[in-house]
Amino acid sequence: MLRWTITFLVIALIAALFGFGGIAAGAAAIAKIIFFIFLVLLVISLVMSVFRKT
Q1: From the CA atom positions of the chain, what is the Rg in Å?
Q2: Claim: this prediction has a pTM higher than 0.85
Q3: Which stretches within 1-20 are classed as H helix?
């Protein structure tokens, strides 16, 4: 999932470089959403591993 975030971030940066505002904003929004989903899953995974060890 982190790979998708980086992919959309790169797409957003390239689109911003060429001046395509709508495309850059869309790709950045998708990258941001996927990044936050990744963070939530990471926290859940860490919490589950802590409880599994005890």
Answers
A1: 15
A2: no
A3: 2-18
